[in-house]
Write a structure and sequence with these properties.
nine-stranded mixed sheet; binds uracil; alpha+beta; 15 strands; 3 domains; 246 residues; Alpha-Beta Plaits; four-stranded antiparallel sheet; Structural Genomics Hypothetical 15.5 Kd Protein In mrcA-pckA Intergenic Region, Chain A; 7 helices
Amino acid sequence: MRLEQILFGQGFGTRRECRALIARGAVRIAGAVCRDAEAVFAPEGLCFEVDGVSWPWHERAYVMLHKPAGYECSHRPRHWPAVYELLPPPLRTRPTRGAVAGVQAVGRLDQDTTGLLLLSDDGQFIHRMASPKHHVPKVYRVRTCHPMGDAELAALAAGVLLRDEALPVAALACERLAADAIEMTLDEGKYHQVKRMIAAVGNRVEALHRSRIGPLALDATLAEGQWRWLTPQEIAAFGATVAGQA
Ligand code: URA
């Protein structure tokens, strides 16, 4: 693939901007500046540098972000900055089928929720992961305003009726971590589901953190606001999870 195409596909700007980057010597391959936009490289496994920042080539982007509180999962945020601002510009501007689209969050976390957020530019992956049909379990650590009694935990596991829902909604698993903290596993993604379930048993969420989605736990080495690429093994594990439930 030509160097200009490689940069364009990874989100480094328009074709013209990519050619300009290459011409001004901003791009290094294997440590050496390459000023030839027509130079051909095998993209698979390629790691290049742009202005000293190394960038591993990925045909599709799959990343995890440790979402901090105070960010909205929206491209048009209303009150808080967008989570996308925590990502480097190429991830936000990668073209999808020629158009600038960037990565999208796989489902949403509330502004005040922290923890594991997946983002990708693979539309099929996003759709499969977010689809209620696939029941990908998500694990939340919940700190509540008041202590949680055994009866409340049992009610969450048995199912509670939420406003505007016809049928009760149950947690797949519910475990006490402390008097005012529980771990809840859900396999649906209804609007404000954790907060509404906790309210349904007469309590209130003080803090909410997502620690796992299906086979993938939040990387403990990522501080709030940091992100990393998923490994091929992690991507494959998702494929197996979703395919296994199809
Ligand atoms: N449930 C909620 O109430 N909020 C979230 O951010 C995620 C799940």
